């Protein structure tokens, strides 16, 4: 990850997650996924607060796809 703003926001999301504020985490990460759609960590973190298994699978697939592109 190269973007320090994205990194800072992920730290906030992780802190909110640790505090159990999953609704705010999800809201923050959904916004981040639009602003930073190519950041693998955004998608993997979003998968932690997915509403269901289908969402979790979708987010992890997106992260995996981005990871493969980065190493291609």
Structural features, described:
The chain has 72 residues and is mainly α. The chain has helices spanning 4-18, 22-35, 40-48, 53-70. Helix 1 packs antiparallel against helix 2, helix 2 (22-35) packs antiparallel against helix 3 (40-48) and helix 3 (40-48) packs antiparallel against helix 4. The chain is globular, with a radius of gyration of 12 Å. The mean pLDDT is 94.
Query: How many separate structural domains?
Result: 1
Number of strands: 0
Which second-level CATH architecture applies?
Alpha Horseshoe
- Our Rg estimate from Cα atoms comes to 12 Å
How much of the sequence lies in strands comes to: under 5%
Annotation field: number of helices: 4
Would you tell me the structural class of the helices and strands?
mainly alpha
The proportion of residues forming helix, as a percent range, comes to over 70%
Shape: globular
What's the average pLDDT?
94
* Terminal residue distance: 17 Å
Q: What is the CATH topology descriptor?
A: Serine Threonine Protein Phosphatase 5, Tetratricopeptide repeat
Q: Can you identify the CATH class? A: Mainly Alpha
Low-confidence stretches: none
Relevant CATH superfamily: Tetratricopeptide repeat domain
Biggest sheet record:
none
Give the SSE string. Answer: HHHH
Quick overview:
The protein is mainly alpha-helical and about 70 residues long. It has four helices and no strands.
Key structural traits:
72 residues; mainly alpha; Serine Threonine Protein Phosphatase 5, Tetratricopeptide repeat; 4 helices; 78% helix; globular
